[in-house]
Write the structure tokens for this entry.
Amino acid sequence: MKQADADGRTEHTSLPGEAAPWIEQIPAVIALFDETLRCVMVNAAWKQEFQALLGDPVGRDFDAVFPPACQFLRLGLMRALMGETVTCEPDSAFSADGSACRFGARAAPWRDCQGVIRGAILICHEVAAGAEALDLFPNGFGETMRDATPAELLARSLEANAILLRSILETMPEALVVIDLRGEILLFSKAAEAMFGFAASEVIGRNVSMLMPEMAREEHDAHMNRYRSTGESRMTGRPRRLIGRRKDGSEFPHSLQIAEAFGGGQRMIAGFMQDLTAEEASALQVEQLQRELAHIGRVHEMGTLASTIAHELNQPLMAITNIVQTAAALLERSDPAIREATVKALNEAGQETLRAGIILRRLRDFLSRGELEKTFEGARNLAEDAISFEAALARYRNIHCAIECSANLAPILVDRVQIQQVILNLVKNAVQSIGKNGTVRIAIAPEGNMVRFTVSDTGPGVPEGRIARLFDPFSTTKTEGMGLGLPICRSIIEAHGGSIWYEAAPGGGASFIFTIPLFHEESDDAG
Ligand code: ADP
């Protein structure tokens, strides 16, 4: 099967010829594997991300390099060996702490000049940095490093550099635009064509400023002038966010990372770009959802507030009514002229006060009944969605969130957003009580004709003396707290026909437990 490929190259750790320095400079994290899935080379970005975790992978088999959690990458590479270009997704789309989502990759076939597949290219993106990535790569794997002689490696690898480079450029999520020192476009990759809507033939030889909005062109010219005269660029290094201009004139956000390159004795500048439109839109969407949840929270807080006000105001209102009516009775015995007008006014005051009482009572009845919008929902999904709003903060504080859910649990009939609000409230409280380093666990299990949710944490728990007032409105120990979270949770759960209570968690933390009926019975009593 192998094509003759020994043509006297001696290096095996980097690619010879023109491709090597290029691949080395590409900011994407790149590894090349031969058809037995043995690693042939990795670029500088790879070394920076993974070397400390994985050691030098060159010459080692995939399984010796990657932990079992990365089987999804292996599957992608195997498909690439069969000629497909694939996006490798982690097996589980979601895990409570987000660890499964930390990076994805693209795998593409690596062909030689004859078009024969010689191996696979792996390009990783969204690689989590430092400590986060460590979770994915538990220590103790990949001990078996087989030594391969340079000749062997050479025989297995590097032949068609140009083809390889092109495959990489076409597989990379980043678009590549290479310009010369005058700013004229020399190379425009496929991804760049897709991103800007121009065909390469329409832009090659023209100034790169055509890819920018008018406003940015001046600044760009200044950059280029400085670069030409000083050889210094402020653009190299970290990627920055810029606005690009498509062929149709529309503008969009993209990242830009600059690398310097030399080819054919010429100095060039390579710009790697990623379209940020979708990313920024989805960030906006999450923000919007968060606002929606927060809004519902506020509506509930207001509801509880109003119901407390109603309760508190009722007594003084009753007292006013009594006093006014007594005064009216007294006046009835005095001067007839004043008497008549005063009696009328006082009676009216009494009527108004009563009316206020009726309005408040109605408001309170309405709020405690609350209209629910019920749909059948999977209990696990509810918890996962709710947790995802708190996941980033939890991760940041090294708090692990885990969901344990009994298998084959029937869907429950609930107001989705409200139950998520309850779970989110409990998880938020748990994360706040832990502060740093700990675990929040959501256990979901059937119990008789109910489903039981237990949100427990490894925080300090609730002191004995506070437990009785825990669900009272305005009972808070936080400087910024309203003390309305738990009463709202209670009113939502009770409106669903369940109950909520506190127990000390076995390990010393807090456990908040609530139940939801598995089979919803509509009750007709209008009371
Ligand atoms: P808030 O969070 O605004 O204080 P809540 O009604 O949600 O309002 O909580 C009331 C109080 O209950 C909190 O201030 C805290 O003292 C206590 N609490 C709630 N959850 C926990 C928990 N998981 N661990 C310890 N204390 C808690």
About this structure: Residues 425, 429-430, 433, 457, 459, 461-462, 470, 475-478, 481-486, 510 surround adenosine-5'-diphosphate (CB under 6 Å).
